[in-house]
From TrEMBL:
The lineage of its organism: Bacteria, Pseudomonadati, Pseudomonadota, Alphaproteobacteria, Rhodospirillales. GO terms for molecular function: long-chain fatty acyl-CoA hydrolase activity. GO terms for cellular component: cytosol. It comes from the Bacteria. Belongs to the acyl coenzyme A hydrolase family. It comes from Thalassobaculum fulvum. CDD domains: BFIT_BACH. InterPro entries: Cytosol_ACT, HOTDOG_ACOT, HotDog_dom_sf, Thioestr_dom. This is HotDog ACOT-type domain-containing protein. SUPFAM superfamilies: Thioesterase/thiol ester dehydrase-isomerase. Keywords: Hydrolase. One of its GO terms (biological process) is fatty acid catabolic process.
Amino acid sequence: MEIRTIAMPADTNPNGDIFGGWVLSQMDIAGGLTAARRAQGRVATVGIDAMTFVRPVGVGDVMCCYGHVEKVGTTSITVAIEAWKVLWFERREVRTLVTEGRFTYVAIDDDGRKRPVDR
């Protein structure tokens, strides 16, 4: 797991569900952590190849994001990310997939220029 956070009322859309952009930003943070660890340094998001929303997130839901490296290029890293919401029912944890996607990051140096990633 890369991150775990709780959805708050300030993050809702007009329908009362958590705004999809908030979910996407949490996934980007998680993917950035995964990519930075693999790149052993700074990375920048350059693209989202695919994203599918499966279930809404509600206020008070705990959201967990998991990422794993799918592909390493010369300067880029593609990370598959899943976001799950966690609820507690009768003293047991219930996890539900919320969304998944593929994010691409590029390794950058201290000046913000692309740099190679060790394979």
